[in-house]
């Protein structure tokens, strides 16, 4: 009798505590959203004369949070646009907006 590979057990999609897992595609999508929201988007807006602090805050709020919601609902679960997608996007958008404001405008570092 052949014993199952430990690698195949990692594809269970849930942990013992019902926390959804994510793979390399999701990690790359989140990383791309973070780089796009904090570096590329502000760089493009700075060419138009928009303040870097403001553009980083907007990029983190909308692009980085979209990367997280997209990876969770399109890459990992294939649920697509649903109410949970929009709530996740809203939660992370507000969180990243607050963190970016504290980071860029108030110079609040921990």
Overall description:
The chain is mainly α. The protein contains four helices and no strands. Helix 3 packs antiparallel against helix 4 (83-104). The longest helix is centred in the middle third of the chain and has 25 residues, at 52-76. The model is unreliable at 6-10 (pLDDT under 50).
Q: Helical percent range?
A: 55-70%
Distance between the termini: 54 Å
Q: Unreliable stretches, pLDDT < 50, 5 or more residues? A: 6-10
Series of secondary-structure elements, N-terminal to C-terminal: HHHH
Overall pLDDT confidence: 83
How many strands, which pairing sense, and closed or not: the largest β-sheet? none
Please count the beta strands (DSSP E, at least 2 residues each).
0
**Rg on CA atoms, Å:** 17 Å
Main features:
110 residues; 4 helices; mainly alpha; 0% strand
Write the layout of secondary structure elements.
Layout: H1 6-9, H2 24-47, H3 52-76, H4 83-104
Helix pairs in contact: 2-3, 3-4
Give a quick rundown of the structure.
α3 packs antiparallel against α4 (83-104). The protein is built from 4 helices and no strands. By secondary structure, it is an all-alpha fold.
